[in-house]
Amino acid sequence: MDKYVKLYKQFWIDWKNYTGKSNLNDFWNTVLCHLIFQFVLGFIIGLIGVPAITSIVSLVLFVPMLALGARRLNDVGEKPTYLLWLLLPLVGWIFVVLKWVK
Question: Would 64 disulfide with which of 4, 15, 37, 101, CB 3.0-4.6 Å?
């Protein structure tokens, strides 16, 4: 459990670092922690019922994930500009996830 807390803490410390590297295990463990955190936070915000807060929180949670994704792409030898594929609905996401799994 302590490992996941350290990984997630490092995730938030490196939220603006797009040039480093992230190995496969750390990347997916951090993504798992982030999804759980997002789910719990979304549930709490849903109980409050203020749509403006939901939009702001979504943006705040999305930016560090872009940095983590860029670091993972650096680790597999790809350019972080591959994240632009995420703008394409299904095909782009599949393409980027396959690069992350590499």
Answer: 15
Buried b (16+ CB within 10 A) or exposed e, 43-54: eebeeeeeeeee
- Cα 4 to Cα 8: distance, rounded to the nearest angstrom: 6
Mean pLDDT of the chain: 89
Return the structure tokens found at 34: 């982030």
* Radius of gyration from C-alpha coordinates of the chain: 14
Tokens of 101: 């799994």
Taking only the tens place, the pLDDT of each residue in 51-93 is: 788 788 888 889 999 999 999 999 999 999 999 999 998 999 9
